[in-house]
Amino acid sequence: MRRGRIFFYLAFILLLGLLAVVVVWQRFLRPAGTGGEQTAAPTPEDTVNVVVMAQSISRGEVINAESLQLLPISRKLFYSGMFEDIRQVVGKMAKYDLEAGTFLNASMLASSAEELSGTGSNIALSIPRGMVAISLPINRISTVSYPPQAGDHVNVIVTLRMIDLDTDWQTMLPNRVDAIIAPNVVTSEAGTNLIYSDYAENAFVGKGETIASLGWTTYSVPSEGKRTSENRTNQRPRLVSQNLLQNAIVLNVGNYAENLLGGQKTKPATAEEGAAEGQTTTVQSQPPDYISLIVTPQDAISLNYLIYSGAQITLVLRSANDDSRVQTEAATLQFLLDQYDIPIPVKLPYGVDPRADDVYVAPLPTVVVVPTPEP
Questions:
Q1: Cα distances (Å, whole numbers) of residue 95 to 2, 74, 86, 87, 337
Q2: Neighbours of 335 (CB within 10 A)
């Protein structure tokens, strides 16, 4: 009896173990897709073919079939304005420069040149909202020898030549003497007391000075009055320079009118007209004479005033990724003397020979590189 019970318990334990193995196999160890169950097939995604640029084109160019292609996208990504047929796009004009891979929509295309002209220029797309663009005349010195390009950041320095004016006439001082009213002096039978000047252009209103060594009182006039005959002012201007704008963005250097309305762009010449075939020629490009900056409307008004007032405007190139602003002081002659500890030379009883009235650097000769003709 006892041995029979032992066999019964062993058989029961074995049965429980087999059931546990079957459960574990069914729930955790059986590979997916085996057995009698069928895996549901995935539902195919709903797609639609849309028109995409296969080639890059410029603003104003007519789009042909070779520059287009169809690309399938999910129906969920399709929005109103996209094109599903290439024939809907062929023959239209691009309102903007379109890169390869651009998904086309109706807002990018124009049906005629009249419709295209109403969209404005590509240049205007580069100006942030609330800002304006203004052009400034430049030369080699005022633009760091011409390196600034579109996208660079610059500071704008302005230099003014200040002079004294007669507040009533708004003319440069000193005034000229035309006639002197001499009190208690009769100069003609008519009883007039006017004494007319005989010095013509060199008669300026001066000032009384006393010569200490003689005890005489003299009437002095400006020593540089004759400079008017040299088309130069008879008053020495006082220079002042100050940082006017900081971190202004360069929109363009030189002219960009040919890019405004699209069409065929002119290509730079690669050889002189009539040059023999196989002969190497040199094409000389003219340096730019204008630069366009992106500034605020108020800064544009200030720059416009300075341009027409004859101020000297200088651009300094900023370091890339530098948007810092520095508080600067206006530079005058007194500021330079104090800031850099420049002494005023003492009047000595001796000097250097030969006499040098002007300080200048002799211009270096221009070196012209002549290309070697190809054999």
A1: 100, 27, 18, 18, 58
A2: 13
φ, ψ at 2 (rounded to 5°): -65, -40
Q: pLDDT of 213-246, one tens digit each?
A: 888 888 777 777 655 455 555 788 999 999 999 9
Query: Cα 176 to the chain's mean position, in Å?
Result: 46
- Structural domain spans, the chain: 47-120, 132-163+237-256+287-339, 179-230
| CB 137, CB 310: distance < 8 Å | no
Which residues on adjacent β-strands are paired with residue 162?
238
pLDDT tens track for 279-319: 555 545 678 888 999 999 999 999 999 999 999 999 999 99
CATH 3.90.1210.10 fits 47-120, yes or no: yes
Q: How many residues does the chain have?
A: 375
Work out the end-to-end distance of the chain between its first and last CA atoms, rounded to an integer number of angstroms. 120
Host H or E run for residue 104 = none
146 within 8 A of 137, measured Cβ to Cβ: no
What whole-number distance in Å separates Cα of residue 25 and Cα of residue 15? Answer: 15
DSSP element (H, E) containing 326: none
Residue 186 and residue 153: Cα distance in Å, rounded? Answer: 71
